[in-house]
Amino acid sequence: MNTLQDIRYAFRMLIKRPGFTAIVVLTLALGIGANTTIFSAIDAVLLNPLPYKDPERLVVIWETNKHLGPEMWDRNEVAMGNFLDWRSRNQVFDQLGALFDTSMNLTGVGEPQRIKSYVVTTNFFQVLGVQPMLGRSFLPEEEKPGAPFTVILSHDLWQRQFGSDPNIINKSLTFNGHQVAVVGVMPPGFEVQFPISKHVDMFVPFIIDVADPDYHDRTQNFLYTVARLKPGVSQEQAQAEMNLIAGQLQQQYPETNAESGVRVVPLHKQIVGNVESYLYMLFAAVGFLLLIACTNVAGLLLARVTARHREVAIRIAVGASRWRLVRQLLTESVILSALSGLLGLLLAYGGVKLLVALTPSEVPRLHEIGLHVPVFLWTLTISIVTGVLFGLAPAVQASKPDLNTALKESSGRNPGSFQGSGLRNLLVVSEVAVALLLLVGAGLMTKSFMRLQRVDPGFDATNVVSMNIALPTSKYRPQQTNVFYDQLSERLRNLPGVKSVAGIDVLPLGNGNVSSRFLIEGAPFVPLADRPYAGVRVVTPDYFQTMGIPNLRGRSFTAQDRENTPGVIIVNEALASRYWPNEDALGKRLGSFEEVPGKQWLEIVGVVGNVRHKAIETEVMPEIYFPYQQSPGNFMNLVVRTASDPASMVPAIRSQVLSVDKDQPVSDIMTMEQRVAKSVAAKRFVMFLLGAFSILALGLAAVGIYGVMAYLVTQRTQEIGVRMALGAQKRDVLNLVVKKGMALAIIGTAIGLVASLALTRLMRSLLFEVTPTDWLTFVITSIVLLTVALLACYIPARRATKVDPLTALRYE
User: Fold this and answer.
1) Which end of the chain has the least Cβ crowding within 10 Å, N or C?
2) If residue 155 lies in a helix (H) or strand (E), which one and from where to where?
3) In 3-state terms, the chain is what percent helix, strand and coil (to 5)?
4) 202 and 152 in contact (C-beta within 8 Å)?
């Protein structure tokens, strides 16, 4: 009964002051809404188990090799020979599977299309514990040479391309010129999400001929390996056994495996990657934002209960217990937080949609982000907790009034003493400190992003469009691929608006990399396992001109660099300066490349500028470029430089491809400017959110300071009147109020600086060319915060200077 009375009374009090109620609800709703939005991402990406059977037993296995450099030495793809030995020798895995990505041309069903695919071992779906929705999984015998060609389709491709045909199973389709039978369709929403979050539309069985020596090669690393631990086997036990196997292979194959090791990583950790750090940083940011909102509301409630001091005193005088008063005031706080939680959910609904729209596509499990049951429970929890958090201190403060003083005062006046001023001051100091912490974090991320934006990728991305063309091996032999690209390049050069055309097998910032070991002619012989690595690229003659990569020394490739001429290569400045720091690399020769069969030594005829191939923020690696005519392949990324908007040329380029081969699709169409933007999208996204949260925190802190100062002016109206009647000037009154507020802001800033120095060190791995203790960022953010605080103090101080002494003294 008392609880119902408390609730009814609380609603009456809140309705009596709709302005106060609206301000409190909106302030808290902003904090709760932001918190709920980010928690929805954390719930989907980090907390929800992966949609596989017993996902905690799934691990990823990488090769390690310190010769590969700091960027990739501990997570390198797996060589085929090592995978086969791992599969046959281990005793800790129920299943060990592998995959690699590819694409296949689909013809005969409308316009030709390039279908992104994974080539997987036949036990791959058993490893994950997932079965097709229609049809069956791959059979073990479909891994053997001579088996019929089969594929399993994604649910999305089945719907999009085949209209959800229930009779698709066993239908024959044409992929890369071969007739292929569809044996299954995966369930809706199924994604591998490994090695990166990438949607694929088809799965193809990996044909493994164990009798073929090429399938035991240990120099070509291209497989991604995933395994299911046996029940009761821990990750540590699996790592120990794989280390033992790696040691055996080092002794058995010292030529290739001398430096090769193994790393076992939980699948969930592999999928989440760096996203985990970003999400927890954003979650901390919205937590601080909610804390600022709570301190603001606590300050408002403290002012309100101070104004109700006489009501509280009368209720205590007539027998109400202090616990009864605390409960009543806490009921009001919880109701306010409940209303804020409802509004926060509405804000979070829009926030989640905006978050999904802005989040880079590389973020794993993006499609799972939403307002699910755990998110609702989280919102309910933080609503109740914040209600108690911001309501408890004011309630306790109000339950301890000075009865004699309170009952002597008339009901129309506030108390002369500034009750609760210490607590109010503490709240202001706290929110200023937290706001500075957010501002510093956002400032560091902004400076890091600006530094990243200024990094030269090594090429000119302006007016260049790229697309992938993969010629089916069933139709194109090496000589025929040369003819195709020669014809296509000639047609494209004749298009109006096209300035130059070229091709490369592995495009910069294209989520791909191929590397190879090499020997230097004249240097002491080095065993294969100890030979240096370099990225290898195959390019057409006009590639460097088309991409705007500077030619530093020597020449570029020409049409005369063909299969019947001496082998030539071009290296980047990073390789030339590393191996010939005090002499010219031109004329030097490198060897032992499988990319150019039949040519033992290749002469360096040019040195070009460095290109940041993998990502803008990664270090430049040594690179070697081969002429396409001497190392032809069926897979090529076309790059076209245009005189105007390159995207407008795409239909004409696609038309020319079809004019050369009516069954040849193009895919992965994107301008190079879009690729550069995509490579920094994650950091831009985090910077944007942190900036938005810090601006909101700055605004809330300013409102909090303004509220305290405005209340101070109201409380001390009579005192100000007396001072002015005794001759105080307006500037004296102005200084009185501003000094009070700025003293709190300065203390809060000092505390915030100390906290920032400690906490921003956790951001070290997320920053680029910026230290976590960057003094300029600390100084600028402090100045911004103090300037806003000064403005928040000045407005109520200026109002104080306009107090009429006669009006103020009328009550004395």
Assistant:
1) N
2) helix 155-162
3) 50, 15, 30
4) yes
DSSP 689: H
Please state, in angstroms and rounded to a whole number, the distance separating the CA atoms of residues 384 and 382.
5
Tens of pLDDT, residue by residue over 58-105, are 999 999 876 665 555 667 889 899 999 999 999 999 999 999 888 888
Residue matched to tokens 């009579």: 718
CB 371, CB 345: distance < 8 Å: yes
**Helices in 603-729 by DSSP H: which ranges?**
650-660, 672-679, 681-715, 717-725
Asked if pLDDT for residue 112 goes beyond 90, the answer is no
- Distances 557 to 536, 565, 597 between C-alpha atoms, Å: 15, 12, 19
pLDDT at res. 550: 94
**DSSP one-letter code for 196:** S
Q: Which two tokens stand for residue 328?
A: 């009543």
C-alpha 574 chain-centroid distance: 29
Average of per-residue pLDDT across 711-738: 69
Query: 């997932």: which residue's tokens?
Result: 130
- Give the count of beta carbons closer than 10 Å to the beta carbon of residue 554: 17
Instruction: Classify each residue of 23-44 as buried b or exposed e, where b means 16 or more C-beta atoms within 10 Å of its C-beta.
Output: bbbebbbbbbbbbbbbbbbbbb
Q: How far is CA 530 from CA 260, 519, 610, in A?
A: 10, 10, 24
The single-letter DSSP state of residue 497 is T
Residue 216, CA distances (Å) to 81, 89, 120, 221, 412 in order: 4, 15, 17, 11, 92
What's the CA gap between 178 and 148, in Å, rounded?
10
Predicted local confidence at residue 413, as pLDDT: 45
Please tell me the predicted confidence (pLDDT) of residue 319. 54
Q: Which residue has the higher pLDDT, 67 or 654?
A: 654
Residue 720 vs residue 610, higher pLDDT: 610
Q: Which residues of 172-197 are buried (b: 16+ CB within 10 A; e: fewer)?
A: ebbbbeeebebbbbbeeebbbbbbeb
SS3 of residue 470 by DSSP:
strand
Residue predicted with more confidence, 584 or 337: 584
Looking at residues 731-740, what average pLDDT do you find?
A: 75
Residue with tokens 């279908």: 115
Given this model, what pLDDT does residue 10 score?
Answer: 63
Distance CA 433, CA 748 (A): 5
- What mean pLDDT is reported for the chain? 82
Q: How far is C-alpha 559 from the geometric centre of its chain's CA atoms?
A: 43
Pairing of strands 93-107, 78-79: unpaired
Residue 200: closest CA among 95, 103, 340, 71 = 103
Helices marked H in 17-109 — which ranges? 18-42, 80-89
For every residue of 535-598, DSSP letters joined together read: EEEEE-TTHHHHHT--EEEE----TT--TTS--EEEEEHHHHHHH-TTS--TT-EEE--TTSTT
The end-to-end CA distance of the chain, in Å, is 44
Instruction: In whole angstroms, give the CA distance from residue 91 to residue 14.
Output: 68
Contact 153, 184 (CB under 8 A): yes
Q: Where are the alpha helices (DSSP H) in 716-729?
A: 717-725
The torsion angles phi and psi of 284, rounded to 5 degrees, stand at -65, -40
Distance CA(531)–CA(524), nearest Å, equals: 11
CB count in 10 Å sphere of residue 170: 10
Helix (H) or strand (E) holding 225: strand 221-229
β-pairing, 221-229 with 78-79?
antiparallel
Angle at the Cα of 155 from the Cα atoms of 153 and 158, rounded to 5 degrees: 65
What pLDDT, in 10s, does the model give residues 160-194? 888 899 899 999 988 888 889 999 999 998 888 77
What is the pTM for the complete model shown? 0.79
The backbone torsions φ and ψ at residue 189, rounded to the nearest 5 degrees and listed phi first, read 85, -5
